[in-house]
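Hi there. Long-time user, first ticket. I'm pasting a complex I've been working with (about 680 residues overall). I'd like to know whether the download I got is complete or cut off, because the file seemed smaller than I expected. Thanks.
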Amino acid sequence: MIRSLRARLTALTLSCIGFVMVPLLALSGAKVVEEVDELSDARLAQSAKTLEAFSNHLGIGMSSAPVEVENWFRPKGADEATPQGHGYETQVGFQYWSSPSQLAVTTQDLRNLTFDAAPIGFADVTNAKRKWRVYTKIGDNGGFIRAAERYDSRHEIVRDLLLQNTLPLVLGLPVLAFLTKWAVKKGLQPLSETARRIDQRSPDDAEPLNAHDAPDEIAPLVGAINGLMRRVHRALDNERQFTSNAAHELRTPLAGALVHVGNALTMTQTDESRAALSDTRGALQRMTRLVNQMLELARWDAASSAKAMSDVDLVVLVREELSELAATVIDREVEVVQSFAPSVPAVRGWEGGLRVLVRNILDNALRYGRAHGTLSIEIQPDEWGVLLAISDDGTGIEASLRDAMFSRFQRGEGVDSPGVGLGLPIAQRIAELHRASLRLLDAGTGRGLRVEVRFPRGR
Amino acid sequence: MHVLIVEDDAHLGRGLEVAIKRWGNTSEWVRDGATALTLAKTVPFDMLLLDLGLPQLGGLEVLKGLKRDGVSVPVIIITARDATDDRVQGLDLGADDYLTKPFELEELAARMRSVRRRVLKTDTSNLEVGRLAIDTLSREARFDGQLLALSRQEFLLLQTLAERAGRVVTRDFLERVLYGETGIDSNALEVHVHSLRKKTEPELIRTARGLGYLLTENIVS
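Hi, the file is complete. Here it is re-exported in full:
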């Protein structure tokens, strides 16, 4: 079974053409043979009658020894009518018998043909190892006129005719095959068009495929795909909605707990209970971060790249986010090194999303970088668009473990205040929505991690 | 000041009451929008802490009601929602600030102080940030009530930072303010900062290396 519809259709169409054309050709060939035979027989009879007319007037047959006549010239290779003759002339011989025992005139090639070799009328005989068609006629003056034609020269005409009948078809067949292939491809274009449309869809696109545009034959398929997509999207939406609702519902009790712990911390006298409350507060803060990141991820998971984007100045945005994180920069006594190109093209995107992306990467760099260390931020135009690179000088991440950092709830190790493990997945998702690439690399300074985000050039 | 807490969650409401009392204020706590609206119309509260997700009459409806009845009271929205639309709508309806749950008590205290400062700002020449008080008219700065002896540029630097207390002010900006666009030996700024720290508290002005300086809102003595 051929797996390609196109190949199947082409093969089937060509087979059908062959199935009809081959018997038709055979039939018409047979007809040609028959017609040529009849035509030639008629000509033979005509020749005999012509000879008879001549013989009556010339009085052939008086001498006792037969007169031998040379065969006439048959022009070779000349197709059409020429002064010398015609290409379809055949080897024709004749005999004149004044009586059944007296041969008066014969052409050389029939010299050995006896009277009895052929009956009166049409007959097939073998003479000089060749097959001949012979016509014998009783003359008005009692003589017998005989005209004969070699079958092989007759067949030559048939061959020519057949060849010329078949040749156009033989030559046309490859053209026909080519055209059929083209036609099938053209005819199946709506199919590849639909396939292309399905292929190009982003997974967030819940919009059903237009079944009206699709050809009738694949409309049910498109309908089935739409149904499947609807179900998948409903399931996805439900999950996202649940995550979002759950996180939202956690916010108020968390706020309550934090307020109470805050109150309790100021009222408590003993160091022990202060420490316990401090730890409680730390845990609550961690939970707060987790809830916020879960909401962030749910929001960007649900976002679709179809949302309208605007031009965003990455340099301004990064500077603003750095100010937001100033408290951490101060606490960890980190030195921030900014190297921004003098002119950086705008990035096409959603400011809110890019803010979250930049904040998450900066946050990680501060969290996992060395205290008293350096945080380097680079923004440069590159051949593709804009490069944002943020490097820290912490312990970095082993190359083999980097991919895993993009899976949700995966945390870096060996840090006092580990994140909740959603920062990079969120950044990754936002980068994806911006058709940007996010990569984890060595910082190049012997230690630390370099996060590179490459944005495509804005329109 | 007298604060109206509008919060339907019992734990959070009670906690806020305790905290506000701890900060030397008084409060009333209601758990639904309709009561809050009635109460706000009759009692001259100094501030309203408003949850958006209230039963029946929602927080945004309360804001609309206050606006309709011409009740002017500073409002800080406290909500579990974080959709930007809600935030914009809330601020459009006259809310002064917006805090997303969960939050640290210190954050709430800072927001309340800042809103209060903005509302009470009748005399624009006075600037108070924690233990620091600046009179921009007479060019006097006091720390813990003690008059500081400052050069013209030190005063300008302190004022610029105090006006943006809690936020990082970039070196570039400070140099522009102090010396104009011509630019100077970058060391001069550090000398001034150092001098200001010596005259107040080392922790008052903090360095974000590579970024700029930040004046701490409330430093403990």
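A couple of notes from our side: The mean pLDDT of chain B is 86. Chain B touches chain A at residues 9, 11-12, 14-16, 18-19, 22, 53, 78, 80-82, 84, 100-106, 167-168, 170, 206-212, 214 (CB under 8 Å).
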